[in-house]
Amino acid sequence: QVQLVESGGGLVQPGGSLRLSCVVSGSIFSIYPMGWYRQAPGKQRELVAGISSSGSPNYADSVKGRFTISRDNAKNTVYLQMNSLKPEDTAVYYCYFRATWGQGTQVTVSS
After folding, report:
1. How far are the Cα atoms of 19, 35, 79 from residue 72, in angstroms, in the given order?
2. Do residues 19 and 82 touch, judged by C-beta distance below 8 A?
3. Cα 18 versus chain centre, distance
4. Whether residue 26 has pLDDT greater than 90
5. For residue 82, what are the contacts with CB-CB under 8 A and spacing of at least 6?
6. Are 79 and 35 a contacting pair, CB within 8 Å?
7. How, if at all, do strands 105-109 and 46-51 pair?
8. Alpha helices of the chain — where are they, by DSSP H?
9. Strand, coil or helix: what is 89?
10. Residues of the chain with pLDDT > 70: what percent?
11. Mean pLDDT of all residues in 63-73
12. Mean pLDDT of the chain, nearest integer
């Protein structure tokens, strides 16, 4: 059974940074793509960033140049480095892998 565990969320001031992590267990990791999504109150869940099995990233326009997705296949982990955070980045962030969602981690950007 595939399980995803996210960590790294929290409260940060505008302009600050956070790094989210998502550890995968119960599956071969390296051959599958992964994604980070987010859902703000009252809004639909949206793709933030994805990464292919070979490490090629793609980003939502709203986070390009500020967020970086990466993966460490030796640790079965995907990361989302978030810099220059804005209040509109406030949301619950989820990782997604092989049709499975993590439990989510709250990111709040506020002064």
Report:
1. 14, 14, 8
2. yes
3. 11
4. no
5. 17, 18, 19, 20, 63, 66, 67, 89, 107
6. no
7. unpaired
8. none
9. helix
10. 100
11. 97
12. 96
SS3 state of residue 26: coil
Residue type, 20: L
Q: Which of 13-51 are b and which e, b meaning 16 or more Cβ less than 10 Å from the residue's Cβ? A: eeeeebebbbbbeeeebeeebbbbbbeeeeeeeeebbbb
Residue with token string 């940060």: 12
Contact present, 19 and 37 (Cβ < 8 Å):
no
Which amino acid is it at 45? R
For residue 90, give both structure tokens.
Answer: 């406030």
Structural contact between residues 49 and 6, judged by C-beta atoms closer than 8 angstroms: no
User: What digits encode the pLDDT tens for the residues 30-61?
Assistant: 899 999 999 999 999 999 999 999 999 999 99
Q: What percent of the chain has pLDDT over 90?
A: 94
Q: Bridge-partner residues for 46, per DSSP?
A: 38
Q: What is the pLDDT of residue 39?
A: 98
CA 25 – CA 40 distance, rounded (Å): 27
Q: What angle do CA 78, 83, 85 make, to 5 degrees?
A: 115
